[in-house]
Amino acid sequence: MGDTAAWSPDRDALRGRVAVVAGATRGAGRGIAAALGEGGATVVCTGRSSRTGGLRSDYDRPETIEGTADLVTRLGGTGIPVAVDHLDPTQVAALAERVRRDHGHLDVLVNDIWGAEVLKGGPAGWDTPIWEHDLERGLRILRLAVETHLVTSHHLLPLLIEQPGGLLVEVTDGTTAYNASRYRISAYYDLAKVAVNRLAFSVGHELAARGATAVAITPGFLRSEMMLDAFEVTEESWRDALDPERDGRGLPVAPPDFALSESPRYVGRAVAALAADAGRARWNQASVTSGQLAAEYGFTDVDGSRPDVWRSIEAAHE
What we know:
The protein is an alpha/beta fold. It contains eleven helices and seven strands. It folds into two domains: 18-222 and 264-306, Rossmann fold (3-Layer(aba) Sandwich); 223-261, no CATH class. α1 (27-38) packs parallel to α2. The radius of gyration is 19 Å and the shape is globular. The two termini are 20 Å apart.
């Protein structure tokens, strides 16, 4: 991991740009919205978890889209919360119309909708064969992870392609190459994450002639709010989870790879770097990691480090 030379975001790199981060409530989505805000972007933050309480989330969590929008604004951008269930085409169509009415254009669309972490379950339930896996839960994983992305792209990409230079980012878990040779948790989870990578490839093919770019990106070992809670640490104390003596105190101990974990802002800065790059078309249809883009663009995580857990995993299997 190691420290790197001092780096700080360009506060005006994305000034005047309009982004929609679909699934911005927590985790990678919140980190991406925040990093776009660091660059001065206007960020429409969508999701079901809202202070208004109008929509039902699959999680019982305290994070809200308003909290994300407030963070975007504090960091120098303009955060706008919009409660949306991305499985409902009518709501997504209304979102697209609102973006058109209020902003007139769309520069960046981030499909980070997930919401199936509880359905995925913990390690004890992984590797459950498809004939034993709960069918209803499995199919909902696919709906939340894939159908939401299709619905959102259908309604918002027409706005993105009205002027050249638009960027679509599909957020997933694992690169195309990594997932191609590894079974990922269950048939449903495996299919969901492979499908999202493929969406960036297929939609990128459709966008290229219209001057837009699609990229699939995967964070590494993400210190999401849910992950920090699972290890009973905070973003400030996360390294404590690596202490093996915690086990004797009845506290969870993180695996060694957690030392290479990253904050959600890291993958956010990867997306912001792509959005600010006038030559981003060279990444069209690519499947990349936050660590790979950090090496390319020179940004760091919030603590000044540049972790790359995927490179470490691949090196261990060489």
